[in-house]
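Q: For a teaching session next week I want to show students how multiple molecules come together into a single three-dimensional assembly. I've collected the sequence lines for a complex. Could you give me the predicted structure tokens for the whole thing so I can convert them for display?
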Amino acid sequence: MTTFQRIVLAQRPRGEVLASNFRLETVEVPALADGQVLVRNHFLSLDPYMRGRMSDAKSYAAPQPLDETMIGGTVGQVVESKNPKFAVGEHVAGMFGWAEMGVSDGALLRKLDVSRIPLSAYLGPVGMTGMTAWYGLNQIMQPKAGETVAVSAASGAVGSVVGQLAKLRGCRVVGIAGGKEKCDYVVNELGFDACVDYKAGNLQADLAAAAPNGIDAIFENVGGEVFDAALARTNAFARVALCGMIAGYNGADVEIKNARVLLTNRLTLRGFIVTEHMEFWPQGLTELGMLVATGKLKYRETVAPDLAAAPEAFIGLLKGKNFGKQLVKLI
Amino acid sequence: MTTFQRIVLAQRPRGEVLASNFRLETVEVPALADGQVLVRNHFLSLDPYMRGRMSDAKSYAAPQPLDETMIGGTVGQVVESKNPKFAVGEHVAGMFGWAEMGVSDGALLRKLDVSRIPLSAYLGPVGMTGMTAWYGLNQIMQPKAGETVAVSAASGAVGSVVGQLAKLRGCRVVGIAGGKEKCDYVVNELGFDACVDYKAGNLQADLAAAAPNGIDAIFENVGGEVFDAALARTNAFARVALCGMIAGYNGADVEIKNARVLLTNRLTLRGFIVTEHMEFWPQGLTELGMLVATGKLKYRETVAPDLAAAPEAFIGLLKGKNFGKQLVKLI
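A: Of course. Below is the structure for the complete assembly, covering every listed component.
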């Protein structure tokens, strides 16, 4: 290969993301300098945070620059190395973005053991996705055995891990997801105690039935009416890990209508970005890796077939069309 | 005295509190049983939390029963005692409610030293009011020297203490209050660095000017657009002590329109009720008492002249008509 494909941000979305916001390009494979490695990416991770980067509104991270490779986590294999720490053939995770190849000095590459854990899992339950769940559950929600935990986007890559970790802690776990198929998966395959289909039209009543003792901790991925419904069922001193507000990713305001509950139930709410808490990653990834390797942590993937399919897959992710972790196959 | 006056809740308010929700009654002074004391109340504290109790909506506390004495903190003097721990003439704080007298077994009475601290201050900066400020600041906001602290209802009984305590910690303190007179008081007498008049119509811009380095911690008493404006100016990892939402005390919904900021700025928000944290009161009241006794903590009182004036004073409190701590003189 002397060239590879990448996708750049062509224009910032106004409201909904469109395929035309992206541009597929073919670029030359660069020559390596001393200390560098060339990685052939096998999978790209698509994540809701990317929507925020596409905007130039003030946020926790600098916006994705126009005409540059879209940001993204990847896993792949070293195909050329001028760095003594990396041998050709080794598997690595990196942040090479929406691209088939990438060059690195190795500083931010993580070597991966694929003997017991599939390569793609390092973008899901044993990567940032899993760590997001782990951090929110263990550092913010801290549920005790017997407490009730609610998880929105429960069939999603993060939510599915949150709920399974909470079950391992002995909690009653209630998922919220869109549609019967996702809810069935959450209960029957992931082992949640209940799942409420927010599309069924009885969110508040169904949540009350699913959480008869109220809710002690919330992992929030969605915002909007889903979050308000969960807030309305909280017990005193409930904790909220605020991970995402996908209801607002297309630029819509996200309101908390039920703000009074924050006071009357004396809630603690914390917004977080897991990449700001790297000190927990070694412990968390070790635990998550063990759980995946031993089959105790289940996950599902939706895999787009090639890089050209990434924009549509990403747009689908923002609309909840994926099932589990959304990946793009690059090889 | 063989009779005394009290005010009971006659009916629950629908929306705004009306004077007709209350009823003034004359009742007999009861005979004391062994172990009891009779207290003549000198001052009654009026506080926003009472509005919540008047409603029978689910809340952290049981609703105020109809036809019973309105709940409330009082300070007064023992006038008769069948309890060896209390002598006639001793000053005590209690929860005797909207009433000129009260009977207690002494268990929940706190003896007061009025040699260096005025009796009424034990309902304000050296009572629950001061502890509310102390707890929110020290246990939730935890601002460091040089950080910027925002306080809504800044001229109020709680807000004024929060700001002064934050100044003693070396913070830049920005108040938010309604009207020029209150703002002048906050800056010129209480020593805040700045005060934004939310009635002036430029809340967002004025707050940006008053907090040029952003806001690191918020003490929130109001909710609604005042809170949204402060949220919009937060820095990453800002802390919010959510003490009150007086914007919603008349039954209106209180929304957080700016909920996205909770995530993008990774805020920590905690709603609290200071009476659930009694373990901090001995330390806090000692510190607050020292500050009042040495003139380092200033406070202002608005005093209604007698019990019959309490309903109108309370209605005024909910509308921000008082200035500083709202008391009712009972003797």
